[in-house]
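>> received
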Amino acid sequence: MGHDTDHTDVTDGTDGTDGTDGTDVMDVMESVVEDRRFGAVRVRLDTGRGEVVVEGGAVPRVELRREGPQDDGHVPVGTRDGDRLALTVDGEEAVVDPSKGRLTRRSFAVDVRYAGQGWRLVPDSVAGSRLLRGREHVGDFVSQGDGRVLAEWREGAEPEALDAALGYALAAAFGTGAHPMWLLAADAIGDIVPG
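>> returned
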C-alpha cells in the first residue's frame, strides 16, 4: 500500500462449523493473520449471524455483534446502524458508531470510543482504509468483505495491541475502501433514473 511498513500474511480456513445450529457454513470465514508486530491474529467473520471476533496472544479479544436481521447486504456484518451493534474489548463495552455510507469516502468512516480514547477507520482509496488513533495515522487496512484482512503499520507510528485488534475487527466487519465521490454520485443518480 505504498509505505515502508510491517506487512501481514494471511492463511484461510474454516472453523469446522457444520451448519447444524442453523449457521450456513458459507457464512463463516476464519483466517489467521501473521502480523509482524503482534504475531498470530485470528479473525472470524460470520455474516449470517453478524459477528466478528478478533483474538490473538498479543492482542485483546474484540467482538462485534449485530442485533436482529441483516439490513445492508453490502456490509459484511450486515448493518451500518450503530444502535444495532454491540462492541466489546476483553468483555468490556465499547461504543461503535459507523457513518451511513453515502457519497463521500468520509461517509463510510467507522468510529470507536473506548477507555477515553477514539479510533476511526476511514477509506482513503478504492481498496484501502486508514486507521487513526485520535488524529494519528497508525496503520492501513485492506479487506474485501470476506473476513481476510491485511494490515500495514505506518513507519514511525507506534501501534498498540488495541489498535491492531480494533483495526482488524472494523476492517472485517465493514470492509475497507470506497470509490471516489464522483463515481459514488454517478451510481446514486443511476439508481434513481429509470432505465
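>> The chain has a mean pLDDT of 85.
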